[in-house]
User: Fold these one by one.
Assistant:
Number 1:
Amino acid sequence: MIAQLRVDDRLIHGQVALVWTKELDTPGIIVANDNAAANDMVQMTLKMATPTGKKLLIRSVQDAITVFNNPKASGMRIFALTNSVQDALAIAKAVPDIGGINVANVGRFAENAKEATQLSPTLMLTDSELAALKELATLDVPVFSQVVPSNAKTAISSLLKNHD
Amino acid sequence: MQRILIASHGHFASGLKSSIEILTGMGEQISTIDAYVDDSDYTTQITAFIAQAETPAVIFTDLKGGSVNQKVMLAAAGKTDLYIISQINLAIILAVLLDPAPLSAAHLDELIAQSQVERIELTASADESDADFLS
């Protein structure tokens, strides 16, 4: 099962590798990202960032959904990562068993960041991402934002309150 | 009560704390001494840390043999369950901060061995199959 699906435009990085894999106690990490699945250089940097002793799978979003829905995956705690809200929404609609969706870091590296809507210090969303996030918030799974475990979990619904 | 102190020449110590806060949100668990940024005597801050420290405690210093390290060694002399680690980097402080195992000299040596400065090159490695991952 997916213990947590994290939306983070840095995918595997310090906060994820050092802190969250320990916090969530997940032996496996799946990066669901079309660009990473097709780019050898990105794959090598993600492998370098993966903590010792953790398994890593890098797949396109569609191929990752196939893995998440493999019966063997139900017995394994998986930490899933996407770098966009849209990709997380596609997974949430196609995969039944998700412990929670953590929309953590979005928009810092986007080219059109100036036109984005700022929901929190780490969430700057384009209009299409905002629409995807609103849809994500209607699904039957906890959706929240928590950059590191020592931060409080903020419900996405409360961040969206003033953005109807 | 704190159990980690970083002491450095200049703002290295508070800079490391800033990095740790961004990465872990646990910056408040770390005391720092930025020595020589003004003309105050920082040795009282070392003894104050040791006096309140929850043991086992660790003091990290920037440079083996540097004056900050010498002051720490003198202040820590004869104390038990107080470890001094020098020649530090961000990785070793994170390793100690995040490690759940009880601190001992042997365990600290393991963490240090895993936190070395290294030259890195990207190398291609075989892709894991879905079956390998799920097994």
Number 2:
Amino acid sequence: MTLGSEDDQARFRSVVLPHLADAYALARWLTGDRADAEDVVQEACLRAFRGIGGFAGVNSRAWVLTIVRHAAYTWLGKNRSSALVMVDDLEAVERQQASGGTPSQAAPETPEAALIAKTDAARLEAAIAELPVPFRETLVLRDVQGLDYREIAEVTKVPIGTVMSRLARARQRLVASIGTDKS
Amino acid sequence: MSPPSSPADPVLLVHAYLDGELDPAHALEIERQLAADPALAAEHKRIVALRSLIQEKLPREAPPANLLRRIEAAIGAPQAPTRFASLSSHPISSHPTWRALAASVLLALFLGSGSTWLILRPAPAPTSTTADLVLASHLRALMAPQPIDVASSDRHTVKPWFNGRIPEAPRVVDLTNDGFALVGGRIDVIGRVPVPTLVYRIRQHLISLTAVPASDAATLGTARRAIAGYNTLGWTDNGVAYWAVSDVAAPDLDAFAKAFRLGTPEP
């Protein structure tokens, strides 16, 4: 690999590095492991560095997170393909629910807000980690990293309507999971 | 944002409402439905509880210190003693052209508006004061299709919206009983720093309230200025400089500031 010009390195510093913490957090939530997250972020940064000339300069955070997500998926496919197998099934279920179901009757046994507030950090973290990847990444991008719907749609490459339904479902699953766990 | 064209699912819209993604008309519609539908209101409560749980309890890890070194080594960059803290600038600050554009639009509008007061006034000092910058943001916001980025009269929606966008969400106070309705919030850029601005309404007038981290808190007492027909009022509380700007009369702005300072931010 040829090293980039000093311009590229300066650009990389101003465009990519400010989002290193977000990049690492997303990679950790997607891989579920700190060391793996570091490898994913390093790989993503290399890709970002090579592609820095192609960055159009609008939303650097969404651009960086898109690359991190892509690197994480490549990594998951190579090292833990079972984590991704269910994505297709899930999409089918999602479509079915979207076309037929009445969403307001979902989650029959939902805990009260007061119970949710009492959940401890470890239980919350485990419940998020248990979410299927598409739900998990949507929830993390929104509720942990604070992206808006348009940015999430850009990063995860789905329409905004899908972002909305995934986010609602991810939150409902989390709430249900918190409510059923008595430990 | 408009909801998707398919039959609007009120549950999804409640989520979008809480995420500050609805335009004012849809936000009002959802607020009406929330008042009428207990099941929907329960969903609203659960989302609020879940989001504050995530905000409060989920550990936020900084990337390991050696990750930055690994990356710099990988791209062949010289090892610079950079700290993460110094890197966390807002993306907006790297786009000076946008600010220049906004400023020139503003200037063009002033010059084209046929007002003569601008020409008679002395040229603004090269370093604009915070009051000038806050007023410029207020005027810019009034010209935009809507003066806010997040529309909600619920402070539990407005405050979390700022999380993740700026380092510290502002104090949001419910002033409905004082006659000032919360309209929403937006992010302004004051001297290259993104800062939170709350927007309140009294009668037909909007008040922008911008919270600027005060580096020299002691220097600002209460600063009152009338600029170009607008009143600005600045004060400092707990290391934050607040700037209120509006076209309401000075006594109204004083009443607003007083109510905001006395108001309790928590329910």
